[in-house]
Amino acid sequence: MDEPQRNLEGTGSPKDPNTLEALDARLRARRARQEGGTERALHRPAGMPASAWGLAWRLAVEMVAAMVFGLGAGWLLDDWFGTAPTFVLILALLGIATGIWNVIRLTGRYQALQDAAEVPRSGARKERE
């Protein structure tokens, strides 16, 4: 029997890196590392941006998008119905309120995920008493 076939069957020496036992040990070590996560992954709740800048940009985009949508929809309705600034004012205020609500909802969700993961915001782990 040739050498590669012997190693695939698991009859080689256990220290040989080509044996099935060595492959199994490497796979178990990789799974353990993935389940534990990296240090950076522990600080980022799932579904949230990787950095504070990412979160800030997302909040800004949510605010601006809600306001622009409200203004645009109000302008189109005013143009269609022939009313002056009625729909622009109403939907602009509604867009601003929606943007603020989205920011509050997103920051509350981010805070809840951080608290659930027990990730400190200052960079140092919280000491339990």
TrEMBL record:
Region (Disordered): 1-23
Keywords from the named record: Hydrogen ion transport, Ion transport, Membrane, Transmembrane, Transmembrane helix, Transport
Regions that span the bilayer: 55-77, 83-104
InterPro entries: Atp1_alphaprobac, ATPase_put
One protein family per Pfam: ATPase_gene1
Function: A possible function for this protein is to guide the assembly of the membrane sector of the ATPase enzyme complex.
Name of the protein described by the UniProt record: ATP synthase protein I
Organism of origin: Marinibaculum pumilum
